[in-house]
Write a structure and sequence with these properties.
This protein has 197 residues and is mostly helical. It contains nine helices and no strands.
């Protein structure tokens, strides 16, 4: 890429500079339009916090959170519920602060990630999007005639990826749990290995 740019600068500098300036202007224009989209959703996050809607949301999603994460503290449930909700609305970047707080609330003090932490990471990465607002916003700013055409394909793709991700986490941790031996058996196998040496 660098070689192409150098070649273009020497071969046709006016084209290279015009293209760079146009692309920079387009990038700034897109960024300003996206700031407006994020400002709306970040404002919504603050309203949810101020109205204690996160607690109601947590109570509503509690059975699902218990199924996916096991028993977790109420504080962690609140953050997980908000994070899942904002991700479902397609504002994953705006939901990042609640995801970080949820991740911190799930820590158990060890150096290893818990099953709940891994599950949160997978759900964040795959998140079901009922309304992909960021993509719709980008399509609107790019001049799409029907920016909402992406809703159904996005919903199908994210449901499939989330289901597969959740099943894989459950499968891996179930196998890991089954491989973990009780301490007395671990000691037995360790002693047996030492005797053979």
């Amino acid at each position: 890429m660098l070689l192409s740019l150098i070649f273009l600068l020497f071969n046709s500098p006016e084209t290279a500079l015009t293209s760079m300036i146009t692309a920079s202007g387009s990038a700034v224009n897109l960024a300003v339009k996206l700031i407006a989209v994020y400002a709306v959703w970040l404002g919504l996050i603050e309203i949810v916090k101020a109205t204690q809607l996160s607690r109601k949301l947590s109570a509503l999603l509690s059975p699902l959170i218990d199924l996916l994460f096991g028993k977790v503290e109420n504080k962690a449930k609140d953050y997980i519920a908000m994070n899942m909700s904002f991700n479902m609305l397609g504002v994953g970047n705006a939901a990042t602060p609640t995801g970080i707080k949820a991740f911190n609330a799930l820590e158990d003090g060890s150096d290893k990630a818990t099953a709940s932490m891994v599950m949160l990471l997978v759900i964040n990465a795959t998140s079901i999007q009922l309304l992909p607002t960021t993509i719709i916003g980008m399509r609107v700013t790019a001049g799409s005639l029907n920016a909402t055409d992406i809703i159904i394909p996005s919903l199908i793709a994210t449901v499939v990826s989330t289901v597969v991700g959740v099943l894989l986490v459950k499968l891996v941790y179930r196998k890991k749990k089954n491989k973990t031996l009780p301490k007395d058996k671990q000691a037995f196998y360790q002693n047996t290995a030492n005797i053979k040496k």
